[in-house]
């Protein structure tokens, strides 16, 4: 029969040589290969990452847990305009706006602020559109934190208590800070 | 035998029992670490330093699992199967001479559970009984896969016991005794390693080790429990510690097979230059002959365990290297290759003894 394609390959079934039929040379060959791997695993560093102790580095553009930023004076930047909630494709963000009282100027930057601001981390798809939409540079997705697993569904609704960044600057996330030109170049080269 | 000597001997028996269990326990750990290293992985490292407490964690897990009895299973035999496997596995280590003897004053302690003049036959008898544990467990499970595994185990063990026995006969022709202690002592002539039986019986050893793999149901001959075809074979239906006993029995069998091979072919508790070392201890170090002999005995004990661990490592090394044989290949290898080879080995040995080349 003529072959349909030109890829047909003629197989010849050669009788096995004595060495092949005796199994043993092939067995020793196999044993030496596994022994090489044994010593490689014992001496070289394994590729395994022992998770709780070691962690894989995040990408610099990783979009993780949200943060509500403060400005240089430590005031909340969010003005509760609702653009993030509108931009959110998963409808994960809700907020209640309130008016700043007299004497609260050191707490909130704008005259209007978010009394409550909640993100449902089970709905959130971490697309970063809220970050894009924010005109006040208030909401960011951190590159170094993730929403950890929890036992109850309620616990995934993050309120302001867990979203607003702490006052002490040491604990603040790196994201959301204006990059210096060198940092920007470094990031670009890492991305390329 | 005096009463204190009897007490010491009892201690030796208990120690043999404990060591067998301990080694089997840590074989589970070693198996997983060696498998991991051969496959460029890490292996268990969570429980304790380097995961050394892993066997403990496994034991706790096995003890707390549900005791499951399949519907229609013969309950009594279902429990009896793993018990029998475990008991026979433990019994066979009793006649292994782990060391020569220790002497304290008038008390002489032989580092051997029981010395009987048919030690090798005893080991063979007990190992043959071991297949009953698998057979009964597989049959009592009321499961077709278990039964298939059990039948495979029975036929495989019978086939390979023949070749194993024939390989052994060549050793017995040279030694003229069935006592494992005597066979060990005969290999200690002048303490030289080339008096070990491996130098005289390389072919016999090859046949013996292949059969040992089959007898202990280890890869490449683990057909009774092959996961892919028989979903675990004879222990498919077993859970909890009954499952644990089967796994344990397998590791104890590996330990005993390694010990028997070390004794029969690798000089047992003898090690090179032992008499020179003893004489040196006496002449240069000024030790008494008894003390020097005790030191040699302890070193020999360590040496035997080094040989045993080497064989156990080899068992595991092979397991994670070779794929499983097909059933017909297994039978063909056993009946048409190993048994004729073993008979040829007997004739060869007979000829060499007749012409005085080896003795």
From TrEMBL, chain A:
It is found in: Cell membrane. NCBIfam families: NuoI. Pfam families: Fer4_7. Signal peptide: none annotated. Keywords: 4Fe-4S, Cell membrane, Iron, Iron-sulfur, Membrane, Metal-binding, NAD, Quinone, Repeat, Translocase, Ubiquinone. Residues 69-98, 115-144 form the 4Fe-4S ferredoxin-type domain. This is NADH-quinone oxidoreductase subunit I.
TrEMBL record, chain B:
It is a multi-pass membrane protein. It is found in: Cell membrane; Membrane. The chain crosses the membrane at residues 6-29, 77-99, 119-141, 162-181, 193-214, 251-275, 295-318, 330-358. It is an enzyme of class 7 (translocase). NDH-1 shuttles electrons from NADH, via FMN and iron-sulfur (Fe-S) centers, to quinones in the respiratory chain. The immediate electron acceptor for the enzyme in this species is believed to be ubiquinone. Couples the redox reaction to proton translocation (for every two electrons transferred, four hydrogen ions are translocated across the cytoplasmic membrane), and thus conserves the redox energy in a proton gradient. This subunit may bind ubiquinone. Its EC number is 7.1.1.-. The keyword Cell membrane applies. It comes from the Bacteria. Belongs to the complex I subunit 1 family. It catalyses: a quinone + NADH + 5 H(+)(in) = a quinol + NAD(+) + 4 H(+)(out). Its main location: membrane. It comes from Hymenobacter negativus. NDH-1 is composed of 14 different subunits. Subunits NuoA, H, J, K, L, M, N constitute the membrane sector of the complex. The lineage of its organism: Bacteria, Pseudomonadati, Bacteroidota, Cytophagia, Cytophagales. Pfam families: NADHdh (PF00146). Keywords: Cell membrane, Membrane, NAD, Oxidoreductase, Quinone, Translocase, Transmembrane, Transmembrane helix, Ubiquinone. PANTHER family: NADH DEHYDROGENASE SUBUNIT 1 (PTHR11432), NADH-UBIQUINONE OXIDOREDUCTASE CHAIN 1 (PTHR11432:SF3). GO terms for molecular function: oxidoreductase activity. InterPro entries: NADH_UbQ_OxRdtase_su1/FPO, NADH_UbQ_OxRdtase_su1_CS. This is NADH-quinone oxidoreductase subunit H.
């Amino acid at each position: 029969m003529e072959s349909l394609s030109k890829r047909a390959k003629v197989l010849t079934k050669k009788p096995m040589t004595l060495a092949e039929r005796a199994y043993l040379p092939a067995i020793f060959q196999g044993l030496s290969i596994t022994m090489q791997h044994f010593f490689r695993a014992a001496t070289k560093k394994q590729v395994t990452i022992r998770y709780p102790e070691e962690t894989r580095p995040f990408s610099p553009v990783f979009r993780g847990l949200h943060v509500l930023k403060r400005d240089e004076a430590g005031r909340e930047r969010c003005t509760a305009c609702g653009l993030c909630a509108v931009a959110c494709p998963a409808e994960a963000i809700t907020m209640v706006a309130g008016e700043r009282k007299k004497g609260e100027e050191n707490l909130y930057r704008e005259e209007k602020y978010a009394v409550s601001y909640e993100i449902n981390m089970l709905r959130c798809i971490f697309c970063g559109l809220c970050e894009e939409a924010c005109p006040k540079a208030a909401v960011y997705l951190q590159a170094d934190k993730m929403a950890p697993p929890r036992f109850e569904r309620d616990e995934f609704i993050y309120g302001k208590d867990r979203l607003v960044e702490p006052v002490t600057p040491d604990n603040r996330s790196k994201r959301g800070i204006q990059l210096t030109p060198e940092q920007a170049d470094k990031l670009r080269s890492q991305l390329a | 035998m005096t009463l204190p000597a009897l007490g010491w001997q009892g201690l030796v028996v208990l120690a043999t029992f404990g060591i067998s269990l301990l080694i089997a326990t840590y074989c589970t750990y070693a198996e997983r670490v060696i498998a991991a290293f051969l496959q460029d992985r890490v292996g268990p490292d969570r429980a304790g330093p380097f995961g050394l407490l892993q066997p403990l964690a496994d034991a706790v897990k096995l003890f707390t699992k549900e005791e499951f009895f399949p519907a229609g299973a013969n309950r009594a035999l279902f429990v009896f199967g793993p018990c029998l496997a475990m008991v026979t596995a433990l019994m066979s280590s009793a006649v292994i001479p782990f060391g020569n003897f220790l002497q304290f004053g008038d008390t002489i302690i032989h580092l051997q559970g029981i010395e009987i003049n048919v030690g090798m036959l005893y080991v063979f008898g007990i190992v043959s009984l071991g297949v009953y544990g698998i057979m009964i467990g597989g049959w009592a499970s009321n499961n077709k896969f278990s039964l298939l595994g059990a039948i495979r185990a029975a036929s495989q063990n019978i086939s390979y016991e023949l070749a194993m026995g024939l390989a052994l006969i060549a050793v017995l022709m040279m030694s003229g005794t069935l006592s494992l202690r005597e066979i060990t002592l005969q290999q200690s002539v002048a303490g030289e390693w080339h008096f070990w039986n491996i130098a005289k019986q390389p072919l016999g050893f090859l046949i013996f080790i292949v059969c040992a793999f089959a007898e202990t149901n280890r890869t490449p001959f683990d057909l009774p429990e092959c996961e892919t075809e028989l979903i675990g074979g004879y222990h498919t239906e077993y859970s909890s510690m009954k499952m644990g006993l089967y796994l344990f029995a397998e590791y104890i069998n590996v330990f005993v097979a390694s010990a028997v091979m070390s004794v029969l072919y690798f000089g047992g508790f003898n090690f090179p230059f032992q008499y020179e070392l003893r004489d040196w201890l006496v002449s240069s170090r000024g030790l008494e002959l008894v003390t020097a002999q005790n030191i040699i005995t302890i070193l020999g004990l360590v040496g035997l365990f080094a040989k045993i661990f080497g064989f156990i490592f080899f068992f595991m090394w092979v397991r994670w290297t070779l794929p499983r044989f097909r059933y017909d290949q297994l039978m063909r290898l056993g009946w048409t290759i190993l048994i004729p080879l073993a008979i040829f080995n007997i004739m060869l040995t007979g000829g060499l003894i007749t012409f005085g080349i080896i003795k």
